[in-house]
Amino acid sequence: MKYEPHQVIVKALTTEKSLNLREHHHCYAFQVATGANKLQISRAVEELFKVKVVDVRTLVGRGKMKKMGRFAGRRPAHKKAYVTIAPEGHIELFEKA
Fold first, then answer.
1. Do 35 and 7 form a contact (C-beta atoms < 8 A)?
2. Domains of the chain
3. Residue 85 exposed, middle or buried by CB count within 10 Å (0-12, 13-18, 19+)
4. Does pTM surpass 0.85?
């Protein structure tokens, strides 16, 4: 599927784990579109934030079954990407947080 760069990156993730990875490994965490592949994620980060991407790792979180009384439903699935950038680069969005 064809995505625009702003459609690939859904939101930036700021957790303790992502903060630790950013400080020690120049790795940033993003929630991305579930249909996006590593190449699309890499190009989107390079285009949106003007940095050189070294590596992209992805994981898919499956939606869990939840019950509310007698009704059952499913939470939506999500996809995360851990993007490692070159040591000389940084993303301003995370520096302000």
1. no
2. 5-87 (3.30.70.330)
3. buried
4. yes
